């Protein structure tokens, strides 16, 4: 029996990279077991290592069907754009981009209402995180600006539609091989930890981690309480298709954040589960 939904409880899910068919049932289990009223995905829905066009199309169909059905059933579902996703908006090749699917993926992202950012409680959710240097250069940081206001500014850049605005979002710093300020879809974990935006908790994917981590960071602004950075990319694989993380997800309940894993959810462990899935699906990846 499904648990009654808590309107404040949100499940945050890391990068899926074409593994929607094996990940989304685990999301369903977490929503039911925890009574979440909202699910937020951190981006990178496409471009697994060695993926094929057939596998990409299967993954996109699975994502579309799941999102539309869950929304119709009353679950709030939000999708944040990742760096891989925005290459399809830009119609430019990036790491693993299937250029033949530029139009199909871009249209699907629009249909599902993919955003640059959203707020969960008082935390800002982006794919990779907003560094202080990038925010000072690209955003209006009026005193008292909160996560919701910053999300609106980031979404305005996405909605502007011109490449100049999309390129602001997709700036990459030295940590990811770029020469610009680390932007909200490309900032590496090290860059975000070294230069977090003061006074703002953030939730991100992008950099693979062994397990969901909520890390307090001194933002150097003199505040007594550090900001919290939550890292959620636990579904990613190495180039040899070996699982990096444990498939844990983040639960945000009011001001609280914590990881939730297989044992609590009554699920089989992620690593053998994804190996089993790849064994049967690799021909389509």
Automatic annotation (TrEMBL):
Among the Pfam families in the record, one is: Metallophos
- Domain named Calcineurin-like phosphoesterase: which ranges? 9-101
In its UniProt record, a GO molecular function of this protein is: hydrolase activity
Highest taxon above the source species: Bacteria
Task: Return the InterPro entries for the record.
Answer: Calcineurin-like_PHP (IPR004843), Metallo-depent_PP-like (IPR029052)
* Listed name of the protein: Calcineurin-like phosphoesterase domain-containing protein
Q: From which organism does this entry originate?
A: [Collinsella] massiliensis
